Queue: 2 jobs
Job 1
Amino acid sequence: MPPKFKFTKDEIISAALNLVRKNGMSALTARALAEELGCSVKPIFGLFKNMDELQQSVFSAAKNLYQSYLQDSAFNGEYPVYKSAGMAYIRFAKEEKELFKLLFMRDRRNEKIEENREEVRQFTDLIMEKLGISEDEAYMFHLEMWIYVHGIATMIATSYLEWSDTLVSETLTDIFTGLKHRYLQKGKE
Amino acid sequence: MPPKFKFTKDEIISAALNLVRKNGMSALTARALAEELGCSVKPIFGLFKNMDELQQSVFSAAKNLYQSYLQDSAFNGEYPVYKSAGMAYIRFAKEEKELFKLLFMRDRRNEKIEENREEVRQFTDLIMEKLGISEDEAYMFHLEMWIYVHGIATMIATSYLEWSDTLVSETLTDIFTGLKHRYLQKGKE
DNA sequence: AAGATTACGCAACAATCGTTACTTTAAAAA
DNA sequence: TTTTTAAAGTAACGATTGTTGCGTAATCTT
């Protein structure tokens, strides 16, 4: 009886993500999104309770996009498993600067990295096995490595640094090697 | 003939900086600042052309505060000169999270670190002398070191990481040592 | 002490935001 | 074909922002 929906939730989220990836979350206004979709604001509020709910959806969509970067990098086989995660993080920072800021340069007062070791368990396990060090050491190893990856990524996302994939790759290897020597030496003392 | 000014430019900037350091630049509105000062918005626009000009002034004030961190750390003598700069950067990130974001986590499309080598000349000179490597190598050395410092600082500023000064200091030394070995070895090849 | 000058407080303006009555209209059901 | 139902369009509302005109009042000059 009623007219069909002009847009699906996914179409709206996709258009919203498009706005956000170009100019950040602040560019996501009801009217701007309506213009992007070529309609009034009504269809938006028909499918989403309010702009907050839509923002959450866009945030999730951004996470999914990052996950696809991780997957692609891992299955690509260009790098070893552990390294491919770092390369994906940095490539995401380069190609999706606004989304990277949204996901990884936001305030995290309620989710400290030190508190959710579980999330990085896959990485620490890899390192434990590869280097034959304890879990605590592997955790610190990964944290130090990730600080470096995060440093490069944030610099690239803010357009403060422009490094080629090759240079990034070489440097990550150097850093990894340096860390490895330090941690293996630590074990001998 | 006219009544006295109720506030000086510096007083206004100081109050504005107070708002920004607590809740970021978006918290700096004309009315909020007027409330903070206990006056109407008129005195603000009497001394500043518009809010943009005031924002610039607050930005400069934030830079000055960071400079004082650098100075204090350098003259303190707790760390070697080069290290004190990194420690100051990280301490600033910890104690002035919002100002750190404002200064060092903003978009820099027009001022790439690779383009203004001059700004970091003081550091590269230090490293050239200390390690006896070329200017290009010293620049890369500093860049790698600074990526690490920046990584820690941004994590701390976003409350994603909480490290004691001691842990930061020890880790920076380890990283520095690792880098030094790599760069000295590179020279021998 | 009176006058001139101008900073200040009040209140309004336009612009922009999220949100929502009210109306229109498309499309399924009769 | 007509009726019904709800999605979509229009346009308004209230809130918040920067900014400014107007009247008041403070203080220096005379």
Job 2
Amino acid sequence: MSEEKKAYDPKEAESAMYALWEQSGFFNPDNLPRKNGKPFAVFLPLPNITGNLHMGHALNAAVTDILIRYHRMRGFDTVWFPGTDHAGIAAQNVVEKELKKEDTTRHKLGREAFIARVWEWKKKYGDIIMGQFKTMGASFDISRTRFTLDPGYAAAVADAFVHYHKQDLLYRAYRTINWCTRCATGISDLEVDYKEEEGVLYYLKYGPFTVATSRPETKFGDTALAVNPADERYKKYIGTEVEITTLDTAEEGKIVIVRLPVVGDEAADMAFGTGIIKVTPAHDIADFEIGERHTLPMMQVIDARGKMMNAGRFDGLKVSEAREKIVSELRAAGLVEREEKYTRNLAICSRCSTAIEPLPSRQWFLKMERLAKATLNALEKGETNIVPDNFAAPYKAWLENTRDWCVSRQLWWGHRLPVWLCTKGKEDDYVVAKEKPAACPHCGECVMTQTEDVCDTWFSSALWPFAGLSDNDLKRFYPSQVLITARDIINLWVGRMVFSGLEFKGAVPFKDVFIHGTVLTKDGKRMSKSLGTGIDPLTLVEKYGADATRFGIVWQAMGTQDIRFDEAAVVAGRKFANKIFNASRFVIGRVGTAPRTEIDMTKATPADVLVLGRADVTKKAVEKHLAVYEFGQALHVLYDFFWHDYCDVYIEEVKKAPSSEADAVLYALLVGSLKLLHPFMPFITEAVWQELPHAEQSVLMVADWEK
RNA sequence: GCGCCCAUAGCUCAGUGGCAGAGCGUUUCAUUGACAUUGAAAAGGUUGAAGGUUCGAUCCCUUCUGGGCGCACCA
């Protein structure tokens, strides 16, 4: 700090301070100078290698770093584990987009070359987001970074798969699942989004009945009709077959008669449409379940690319084209009774927004019943504690109703399943094993090949709190103390980490789950890149500094409410940083190079006593707020104390009428304030600390909070 | 359909069963002294509506209105 400078310059100080911390080695808990014997570990919610830091990450990084720095100063064996996620479907899509620009496709490249391309991408962009976290001041231990495709991590994924299979929790089945025709893979229930869409509900004549459907093109896949067993209108048909007049798939204009059984099933809602469902087990998940209950055959009429098949002259048409053509022919044949406008929730792929096409497919499923029960049990026994607790209800509801998890994906980028196929046998001849079997147990002679399928990304991220950790770190840091994340991945990720932890480590992976708010635009809209409504935290750092950016975000992070982000708070943060800088300059200039550190309370004036008391109250309030994840409140308390009690009142008093103890009080409170402020604004406080004449520790980051 | 959250100053938000607060913005004044990225002060509120509990409600309860979100259904 040179005498001429009147304003704090974050740019210079921030990179210098981060370098100082890295040199100190104190991000690594092995090097910490003081330990109280208690661990404090946090696992970074895995950012994707496709990502850039956004406001959600910035909020997460800020509050996590506050807790990490706070505990480190209190002497905990503190570690923050960073890492990145290979993000199977997301990364594959990104690289596919790149290939498209080069006018090629992954299929032209072939699997091996394509995967090499994704690795190239990973090398180029994989660490960018980690660097951006550092810019925010994240004090994670980079030496403990993991990537979900690291060899050790991959081994854990394969082990988990084999384990589940041995436990009879994992099975292979031919089922109707959510299929994305663009990504060309099956996806899980949790990866499906819904969007309202105007459609038409067609009332079609089905023999003696009228059936309401929004998907007439699937009619060739019908294998039954279903009515509610309690429905007086149709009860008598249950167990019979009815004759249906329908289009001929061979010859246009020809009408044929087919026979369909009528089943009684509760899934039929008497109040919807006509109360009769056309059951298409191959192209509707609810219908598939009806089919299972009544052992109905499956008739697939739409293929993996979303085109008609097994439908004669309609084969090869896109679903939308087929629908149009079929409806117009049905109209002509007098088989459409009426058409109604109808708003429906269209299922779309959460990754690419393409309409989901339910399709029958051979996939691997993880049985959820036992795992969900264990997770629920941990919640009820208080082993996991969700903060705020109103998020526990939907979490519970999901666990109570969840279906088996489809964990296989038809992607190229990911953990290939440890499944080996007989090359001479039928489709069902396979072996689940980590290593390739020496001999095929089915035919005894073939060389088995590994399945093309890979794991759902979330299957591997579910293992994040332990996969690829050293045995020593596992003993030392598992379970971690808190998981800090956003609400949108509670089921997708948090629940799955919990049951994975219970299954593989016999304990929940974290005690608290703190769900922070979502950062919205100032007028309450979702921040979105495509809508241009996002604010880039790195731009804020560039403009105001990382401390000011952290301040601005945390200032608004009151409780767990969503944040309507107002840049004005970052401006306030910059001003506050400057205030800290200047107040420190004044105090250091006044107390000289050998400040008194003992305060003689017998000589203290009321002003001295008042400010010391306020400092004490402030510290207790900060601790109280941090204990319950009230980050914004803690910062407000600190701000009020430092700016008003310390600067406006006490320093002004000292200028007018200093007491005999004034210098000692000024210095003690500066040291104390820097400690309290450090978790929130680490750079400026560290920079000032480095200028203190008699610092107790060379680095504020590891100074004793209690002293 | 089931459930959750929110509504307080112009804006973004705290807060408390007993005189309603902050940041930013606005207005006035001050200032060679750590800081104009400052200080002192002012204006600005029927705490979304109605009802209830209470000596007393912004706070607790009910209903409504408006906004946001999650889950399910969606033939």
